[in-house]
Every structure is written in C-alpha cells, then in structure tokens.
Design goal:
This protein has about 180 residues and is mainly alpha-helical. Helix content is about 70%, strand content about 0%. The N and C termini lie far apart (about 35 Å).
Length: about 180
C-alpha cells in the first residue's frame, strides 16, 4: 500500500477517535443550518444550491464514528428540515438517516481528518443525497421529478468546497479532554 493510502486508514484505538460535542452545539448548529436552508434562499436565490443540513449531518456523523448515532443525527436533522419546509414529512428524514449511517460507517475505516477525504465524502454524499431523494419522490410519492446529473455534480462540487471551511469551523467546537 502507498504511504498516502496508509495515512488514510485508521490505526488508532476506537475510544480515542470519537469526537465529543457539547449538547448545545449538537442542537444549535443543526438548527441553524436548517433555518439557513429554509429561509436564506428566499432572500438570496443564488445560495439555494447549498445543502447545509446535509453537510452538518455528514460532519457530525463522521466525527461521532458510530453508525447508530449517525442514523439518529441524520433522522433528527432530516425530520426537522421536513417540518420547517414545504416537503412531505419524512422524505429528508429517510435520506439523511441513510447519509448519517453511511458517513459514520465510512469513518470507522478511514481517517476523516484528512482534507482530501472530507472533500470527496462531502461531494459523494451530496450526490447520493440528491439521487436517493429523487428515487424516493418517484417511488413513494409517485411524482415526476426531473434529475439533472450535470447540475447535481456541479452543486456537489460547490457543496464540497463549502464543506472544507465549515468543517474547520466545526472542528473548533469539539470538546477537549
């Protein structure tokens, strides 16, 4: 294996890898991201591509490194987002639950403090989120919804670019000790 590949794999005991956050951080950051998602695009339409609740779900799931916690984080953020938006209740909840579970599962195997991996995972989970949401709307709601793959890739790239400084700020909110 290459030196870069070995640095991505985790060799640290599990207990020391999981990050802890204050309860206020775990409540206020997701709530702020959801409020941003629901209200800011009404005033600044060019920010409608930004999926902050998804990025927060990915971050907290990666840092907690527990698939069950990631699932609960995703479900909570998704359901609150559904409740505050004009979407059918449960659609974002289901999709973000899966994102939280898979992000936490990935973090068990790889060093998620690596910037390149964070960028790739943010991009991947944005595309996964959009694709799975599209499948859910078509399958569960039987609604015709278009899916522009090129636009999704572009927005995924933009969200991944935003994720790096967002994750750096959120890293500063971790509990020490």
């Amino acid at each position: 294996m290459t030196e870069f590949g070995e640095r991505l794999l985790i060799d640290v005991p599990r207990k020391s890898r999981s990050s802890r956050f204050r309860p206020a951080v775990l409540i206020l950051i997701p709530l702020g991201s959801i409020l941003f998602q629901v209200y800011v695009p009404n005033f600044v339409e060019s920010l409608s591509y930004l999926e902050l609740p998804l990025l927060v779900t990915v971050y907290f799931s990666l840092m907690r490194r527990r698939p069950v916690s990631g699932s609960f984080i995703g479900a909570g953020i998704g359901l609150v987002q559904d409740a505050l938006s004009h979407q059918p209740l449960g659609m974002f909840g289901i999709v973000k639950t899966l994102v939280g579970y898979f992000a936490a599962s990935v973090s068990l195997r790889f060093d998620v403090d690596n910037l390149a991996l964070r960028f790739f995972l943010s991009f991947f989970f944005f595309v996964f989120h959009q694709l799975f949401y599209w499948v859910m709307v078509r399958a569960l709601l039987a609604q015709a919804m278009g899916f522009d793959f090129a636009q999704t890739l572009l927005f995924g790239l933009l969200n991944a670019i935003v994720a790096l400084p967002l994750f750096a700020v959120l890293d500063k909110l971790k509990e020490t000790g």
